Amino acid sequence: MKRLYLLLLVFLVAMFSYQAKAQSRLVEGTVLSATDGLPLVGATVVVKGTTKGTTTNLDGEFSIEISEPEILVASFIGFASQEIAVNPDDSGDITFNLTEDIAKLNEVVVSGLASTVKRSNLANAVATVDAEELTGKTTQQTLDNALYGKLPGVNMNANSGAPGGGVNIQLRGISTLGAGSSQPLYIIDGVYVDNSSIRTGRTQVSGASGGQSAATQDNAANRIADIDPEDIERIEVLKGPSAAAIYGTRANAGVILITTKKGSKGKPKIRISQDIGFAQGQNFVGLDDWNPEKITAYYGTGQTAQDELAKYNEALAEGRITDWEEELYGRTALLLKSTASITGGFDKTKYYVSAGIQDEEGIIENTGFERYSIRANVEQKIGDDLTISLNNNYVKSESNRGFTGNQNNTGGSLGYNIAYTPTYADLFPNELGNYPTNTYFNDNPLAIRDLATNNSVVDRYITSFALNWDIFTSDRQFLKFSINGGVDYLSSNSLVHFPEILQHQQANNNPGDVMWGKQDNLNTNVQGFLIYNAYLGSLNTNTQVGLVRLDNYSEFLLARGRGLVGGQTNLRWANVQSVQDQVTTDVTDFGIVAQEELNWEEKIIGTVGIRLDKSTLNYQQNEFYAFPKASVAVNIHNFDFWAFESVNQLKLRAAYGETGGLPTFGNTFESLTPQLVGGELGGQVGTRGVDPNLVPETASELEVGVDFALFDNKIGVEATYYNKEVRDLILDLQPAEATGILAIATNAADLVNKGIELTLNYNPVTNENFVWNGQLLWWRNRSEITRLDIPTFTTGGFGPSLGSYLIAEGYSPTTIVGNPATTDVPGGFTVYGDRQADFNMSFYNSFTFFKNFDLSFLFHWKQGGENINLSSLLWDDGGTTPGWDEDKNNNETPDGLDRLLEWAGGNTGVYVQDASYLKLRELGLYYRVPSSTLSSVVGGSISKLKIGASLNNVLLWTPYESYDPEVSNFGSQPIASNIEVSPYPSSRRVFFHIKFEF
Amino acid sequence: MNKFKNISSFLLAMTLLIASCEIEEIQDPNNPSLQSVSNNASIAELQVLVTGLEARHRGYFTNATQMFGTFGREVLPYFGSDPRFQNEWLGLVLEETYPDFFASGGSYIDPYLTVKQANVLIESVENSNSISEQQANGYLGFAKTIKAHQLLFPLMQQYQNGIRVEVSDPLNPGPILSYDDALNEIIILLNEAYDNLQNAGDSFLFDLTAGYSDFADPASFGQVNRALTARVNLYAENYTDALTALDDSFMDFNGDMSLGPAHVYGEAPDVNNPLFYPLDRPTNTILIVHPAMIEDTLAGDGRISKFAERVENPVTNSNIEDSNGDPIPGRYQDARWTTNTAPIPYIRNEELILIYAEAQITNDVNEAVDAINVIRNFWGVGDYTGPTDAESLENEILFQRRYSLWAEGGHRWIDLRRLGKLNDQYVDLRAGGNLFTQVARRTSETNWDNNN
């Protein structure tokens, strides 16, 4: 290995040749924005076909030396680049007028681990979101929430409305059936960051554990929620293997690259913003009223009914009839966010320093989310050749997510609870603060809300470093060395507590239950690359080779105490103390990467690359697995024959790549598990066997597309088709259960995702008084299992009678099945739908009018896709569904009971519902106070002032019969998402904003 | 040349990176590997497997008691969190169960996990050089007895569907045997275990929990083996063999009715007694005594003390209602357990006396009646005075078993079925529903046979 690098290096050095300088002229000029004529600071001007270039100063001016006739290319982020021919014999300044680049053609997008490429030369449909799109229009709680509807091919589903996040993101369909990570890899400034959902043990405390899915029902947030969206400059999404191949063995679910804000040269700019707003629960179901007829319908006519009637009359007389939804979910929650940042730079130093506080209440009392974040990004140039940058971020986030979702025997879910609790139940605490017993369920929901705790606090430190060394630079070639990496350290502490005075705890032998969770997670990664770039005639070549390494170590501890005394939560005050779980995870990945990019006059751009990876998660821990890629983009408009003025871009592109998916930690070990029995500790043989031939999952993707821009980039279109095949999917082979081995992870299936992504950008009007920009996105994905070596099976949820997912050859892996049994379908159950959407569409428009007003809105339409709505089942069972005792079919049985009986009779489809929706996700209106007004009123001490109002989740239209069709009781699942059990309702958020810049 | 200095320092950096490229292989950092115990296990490692076997051994009990108990209407599942406990277990709509029937894995999968554990222990003993042959016989006798007992539960659940008995190789399991063949295999296994125990010397090399305090050596554990053998022979209608086995068991007409080996429980991280519910606390999730049990109790029967009335907190469940649609309140709960760590015997002297009585019906009627009276007198009801024809005696024994063995792993359902009396004449169906004879074969078993 060492020898290989040495050889390569010698080869590269030998290729350098001395280049003599000819007579030259200093060309001077200015780069301006064509929209408003203002100078563009920091725009790049390069001599076409060389590596020679400069950037503009504070006045938008530049100077560059040329020795022969050349073409200068000026470019700036957000603007289309422009070319002007210059000749050393001419004189006079030149001026570039750059027009806004609504198709983002000029944007620089990642093309390898150590290289970037202009979007116009890119062979993939890499979606990007910049700061303005991400957070400029409204305030979102978490980073993932801010991505909704902004990226084609990205399917997102919030797991619940609980404060603190929790979003399932799936890029281009299904990339694993559960063995590997279904969530994309997040990389922030080169650091692999943890996005896991950390168990809190709420599942055990509330008794929710169970169901066919082994997944936790903790409803914990995924930890990307720790990242403050305000710090983000841009996000690039590598949706499939063709773009993500260079990330190798962990990239099957795609890669989300996040770049944080950097400093820029110039005097310090101080920005301060304050958001204040409120949230309200939306789309309440309106649980059924109770009256004497209803009581008869539900309880019959016997003694029980008489007793209930008496209770009802008592409540009526005391004015205690309560809408439990309003009572529990009806809080108007206060939302606050404050941010401050300073950015600036000197000759060789640039810095960005920021701090942010976000403090949001939830719509349920005693729930909420807080995040404190500070960041310092510093870049220092040492000499001419060396640049070092260091980005530091400390975050503390705290969430109180309350008790919703599933439960068993505890009443530890508000929604589950009120499904069975009639409006006349006597639940309010008396003057002594004692909560009455709920005779309709295991506990009093008000007591659960007021007395129980579900808290988690994360302290997190993410630091990244990068060193770029220009080893050698000449006009026509350069050699660079770059090393970068970083550390993501996360410490999580959680507390779930049911005090001993709760009704259901009093029914236990050891009342009082507390669960303390602790996780320390350390990710470290480093990569080193050599990049050699040269012009060979009209061909630009870029060669990179490098090594990457990732280490992940985590310690998880969940400790439980039962039989609490004195209202304490300290474990020493528990009669029964136990370790619920302790897990050490230790993983190392190592990879070798090589990539070659060829660019022929921006007409044809080709790339080939390979990554070799090994990981200790594999059964063969020291075996390399190869992930190749190849792509080509053809810019037809750059060919000389192109004569259509109005079509200023036409690009055909094709890309192929492969990525991997790793087995879950622990699935390659055959071990004993400890179990105490009568004071003796024994070892139980695990239920999992091991397949010695296990290899990683491999996804390969072919993506083809056409991009074009019309009328000076007024209209831009990107159309992409992909075929993503995931091979050797790791599934659990289920031996006959009689063998006592319930699962053997094995490469048992292939699946195909095919999809279309369309992007239309338009900028129909740009003038002094009115600017209109818009974007229309449309995407769809179809998945199908094409090979299944193990028997057809159902997975996820609570078993087929309550709705489950079918894994069968020829079927989508997200097919929902249930009773009754049928022989028409493999697996023997009836098909009721598919949780994946028929298509998604989003529609964004922004208007600037009267120069200083900005109005924007974003609609998101998800068409089709079904949910398993078990809330409806609970409401029917508890007699609380709206209109439960109506009798629309005149069969003298209440409709709610009809549905329940139909379901009990073997029709699971009763509770599988269409989850289409149309959401107005974002709506914002801002006013930028004109600088003339500012200088006359405040004397110029404030250079910019912007005020506005915005809403998110404003409107929701859906046929779905619950709070929000976006839901998942089991958290972020590759397959078994979209199952609802009385979740935390989602909320509508309204904000007022003020932003200053000094 | 400055550049070359730079390049050499760069090379150094690359070398360091490359040096980090061999990755160290990871073993399970959280648990011992299975391999370490199955190859030449030490005595300490065998103890870990023996204790693990005891831990696994009790898994079946909850589901067998609750689900079989509901099938036989000994108990009613007032489990409020999931309506399937009532709808499906009581067969309110279903006439038959279906593959992977709701909440039925506990009396199928759990016993087979125990069988797996026993097979691993047997293999480890056979591969161990740390113990003598005599000592090995002790382990084998224990492991095989437990294994045989466990096989009985999937068989009771599956009944005429039959079960697999040879299951040591996960990728090459033996065939599904018929009910009769499987019973026979279980008897053979028990006899094999008894041979091992008789050649195991005076003591075991391993420790058992307090559940075996009276049966902790090869001789007394052999009595447990014989007791189980008697039960299986009764099921197989081998009455003579049952009587022979009883002779060598711990049956004692004058002894403690509750004498027998037990499953033990403890506080976390141990498992709680699954049948314990604090008395009369408000809850909607509790196993309730079927009201017919209370109504049919003989005057003076001491066994009524097994049930406690829920005076303050009778429980209702909207799915458990009478034919008028009025809820049937759950008024009585299990009162046998003083704490949630109380041990539960899994075969008792009382059952052995009743097996004796039943096995004697066709052999010696007087012996049968005597044995019945031992039970009746013990609980404070007078001698049996009814007719002594076989049918009457069988019904009397069934009645005694109903009260003596109430909610101890689902005897009532199994007894009525094996005697052909699983019908509404013997089962109180006031809560409606259908009577299931057996549970459908599990999907994994069908799939395996279809695909291999």
Describe the protein in words.
The complex is a heterodimer of chains A (998) and B (452). By secondary structure, chain A is mostly beta strands. The model of chain A is unreliable at 1-22 (pLDDT under 50). Chain B has 452 residues and is mostly helical. In chain B, the strands form four sheets. In chain B, strands 1-5 form a two-stranded antiparallel sheet. The longest helix of chain B is centred in the N-terminal third of the chain and has 26 residues, at 133-158.
In short:
The complex is a heterodimer of chains A (998) and B (452). By secondary structure, chain A is mostly beta strands.
Name the helix and strand elements of chain B from N-terminus to C-terminus, one letter apiece: HHHHEHHHEEHHHEEHEEEHHHHH
Strand content of chain B: 5-15%
Mean pLDDT of chain A: 87
User: What's the count of strands of chain B?
Assistant: 8
How helical, in percent, are the residues of chain A? 10-25%
Structural class of chain B: mainly alpha
Number of helices of chain B: 16
Gyration radius of chain A (Cα, Å) is: 30 Å
Tell me the structural class of chain A.
mainly beta
Radius of gyration of chain B: 26 Å
Q: Main β-sheet of chain B, in a few words?
A: 2 strands, antiparallel
Low-confidence stretches of chain B: none
Distance between the termini of chain B: 72 Å
Q: Key terms for this structure?
A:
heterodimer, A: 998 residues, mainly beta, 22-stranded antiparallel beta barrel, 5-stranded mixed beta sheet, 10% helix, 49% strand, globular, B: 452 residues, mainly alpha, two-stranded antiparallel sheet, two-stranded antiparallel ribbon, 16 helices, 8 strands, 5% strand
